[in-house]
Write a structure and sequence with these properties.
By secondary structure, this protein is α+β, with helices and mostly antiparallel strands. It has three helices and three strands.
Length: about 70
């Protein structure tokens, strides 16, 4: 995974479909990874809306890409 992808903003927030476009796993695998601490927790914006900081997703891609 390339952390300098043009579809990954340098700052801001990403919704789950955007995250899963960058990290090709299922929704259930993503949520299980959050529960286990493997993936960063999102931030609730209210209701059912959860977002992830672009910086956290970039760091995850760099960490996984380095393994």
């Amino acid at each position: 995974m390339n952390a300098s992808r043009p579809d990954l903003p340098s700052t801001g927030f990403l919704r789950l479909p955007q995250v899963l476009a960058l990290i090709p796993i299922s929704r259930s695998a993503w949520w299980a990874g959050i529960r286990s601490g493997k993936y960063p927790a999102g931030r609730k914006l209210g209701g059912k809306t959860t977002v992830w900081r672009a910086e956290d997703i970039r760091a995850l891609i760099e960490r996984v890409g380095g393994q």
